[in-house]
Amino acid sequence: MIVHGFLPLFIGQALVDEILRGGRRFYRPEIGFIPVEFQGAAYRFGHSMVRPSYRANLAGDHGQPFFGMIFDPVAEGQTDPIDLRGGARAPRRFVGWQTFFDFGPEFTDPNSTNPAVRPNKLIDTKISTPLFDLPLGAIASGDPPTALPQRNLLRHVTWSLPSGQSIARAMELPVLSGRDFLELRSFRLDLEDSTPLWFYVLKEAEVMEGGRRLGPVGGRIVGEVFIGLLQLDRDSYLNQRAWRPTLPARSGRVTGDFHMVDFLTFAGVDPASRGQ
């Protein structure tokens, strides 16, 4: 699912094929590890894709959809929070997976022909408001700062990460112009020419790919690390060339193909199994 489903969506099939066929150019350790450029910056691209609120299910709230903000300060201490924070169990808080994955045209909004599934936000430099005020319970250390963008940018400083421009030049990939970062000039820190890698990866996706997937630097880092970790694990799928999926697809037949909706069906949490 990672190689054939996840990575093509976020870095593009062409780059996946290039790394698999031509080899990794930069992530080439003898033993697999997660580099700080991946952990602290590139793979945090998902933070820009988080919506401020979600419809968690279609009928969990007394027969009505359960909507909730990702985080809402009012929910602090509530047994059944009005937001979508974890750590609480209640009947309305189950996930209706057809709102997040495409199970087909038969799973639509109630009394509608619109698909129940909703698209992600784009990969860009716009971060949803609730992520600027995280509950302390959502932070591993339990300590401030509570603004997720601030925490990401502090990692860039404390881990001494190179700028996005420096990494692009080292990779011999197209480098964004200072004109792409005009919103940073007002800080008078030369950030438009030496941009924190996390912000650079988001802007690169926005400018070069319209926010639909990662750009050259972000895509290369994410792709090479994921594929590299799999290639460095002798028991992984990429080192078992004769292996094919053995679990049944949604149809109940073993087809040698397996996607996220098949996995959710196998786990019995798909909408059909729940009678939704």
Quaternary structure type: single chain
From the spread of the alpha carbons, the general shape counts as globular
Could you report the average pLDDT, rounded to the nearest whole number?
Answer: 94
Query: What count of helical segments does DSSP give?
Result: 8
Low-confidence stretches: none
Biggest sheet overview: 2 strands, antiparallel
Side-by-side strand order of the widest sheet? 1-2
- The string of secondary-structure elements, in order, is HHHEEHHHHH
Assign a percent range to the helix content.
Answer: 25-40%
What's the alpha carbon Rg, rounded to whole Å? Answer: 21 Å
The secondary structure category is: mainly alpha
Strand content: 5-15%
Distance between the termini: 25 Å
Number of strands: 2
Q: How many domains make up the 3D coordinates?
A: 2
Please provide a written account of the structure.
With 276 residues, the chain is mainly alpha-helical. The protein has two domains: 2-49 and 138-239, no CATH class; 53-121, no CATH class. The protein is built from eight helices and two strands. Strands 1-2 form a two-stranded antiparallel sheet. Strand 1 (53-61) and strand 2 (64-69) form a beta hairpin. Helix 1 (2-11) packs antiparallel against helix 7. The longest helix is centred in the C-terminal third of the chain and has 16 residues, at 216-231. The chain is globular and about 55 Å long. The model has no long low-confidence stretch (mean pLDDT 94).
